[in-house]
Write a structure and sequence with these properties.
The chain has 219 residues and is α/β, with parallel strands linked by helices. The strands form 2 sheets. Strands 7-8-9-3-10-11 form a 6-stranded mixed beta sheet, sandwiched between helices. Helix content is 29%, strand content 28%. It starts with a strand and ends in a 5-residue tail after the last strand. The protein has a single domain, classed as Rossmann fold (3-Layer(aba) Sandwich). Helix 2 packs parallel to helix 4. It is globular, with a radius of gyration of 17 Å.
Length: 219
């Protein structure tokens, strides 16, 4: 599902990463500054590497030798950050539908009712983000990403700003997303416990390089 080999120089930091995964959820683990977020930005097309190739779900999204660089809005990759980044002036319903409404009808693979039921947020639809708890905001942020009908979901430490109680609330929803939608994910976290809740496939990264991996096909 994922075949990535990229090289990127950002100031004094050098990202030189090879990552291959055919499991549904891949965990990416490493210390702060290891290059985890940079790698996600490269995959999403927000940052262009100097060289390499990116293949997602069999489609070549970037190749330096063939001069291919699919723009971010055409990569069909969903992003979920630790900061929910909801639009404060929009209701939960309109936040959820923001990306969905920009898809062509044939691209709308995941629909509002599915996401609302999956994440149990029907009672939040008419509220504004300022009235939501931290855990509710993260569920809405996840829902908005899902409604963009992505081929891959990138989660960049989505629970880092939440306390332990809220983390335990959100993790089951991520597990349901994995199991019910069968949506490939790349999950970045400082917590191996979080990663192992979702997958046994963990890639370890330090100083911009993959230094090892463990894989058990259970998930």
């Amino acid at each position: 599902m994922l075949d990535i080999q990229v090289s990127l120089q950002q100031g004094n930091f050098h990202l030189d990463t090879k990552l291959h995964s055919e499991v549904l959820v891949t965990g990416l683990f490493g210390p702060s500054g290891a290059g985890k977020s940079s790698l996600l930005q490269v995959i999403a097309g927000l940052v262009t590497p100097e060289q390499g190739r990116i293949v997602v779900d069999g489609e070549l999204l970037y190749c330096s030798t063939r001069h291919i660089n699919v723009p971010p809005h055409k990569r069909r990759i969903g992003l979920v950050f630790q900061d929910d980044q909801l639009f404060p002036h929009l209701s939960v319903r309109n936040n959820l539908l923001y990306g969905f409404r920009r898809l062509k009808v044939g691209q709308q693979k995941i629909h509002l009712d599915t996401v609302v039921d999956l994440l149990e947020i029907a009672h939040l639809l008419d509220k504004k983000p300022n009235l939501l708890s931290g855990g509710e905001k993260q569920r809405v942020g996840l829902g908005r990403a899902l409604l963009s009908s992505p081929r891959l979901l990138l989660l960049d430490e989505p629970l880092a700003s939440l306390d332990q109680r809220l983390k335990q609330q959100i993790l089951p929803f991520l597990l349901r997303t994995r199991d019910e939608l069968c949506l490939p994910m790349l999950y970045v976290s400082h917590s191996l416990e979080e990663i192992h809740y979702l997958t046994e496939h963990v890639v370890y990264i330090e100083r911009g390089c993959v230094i090892g991996a463990e894989c058990n096909q259970k998930s």
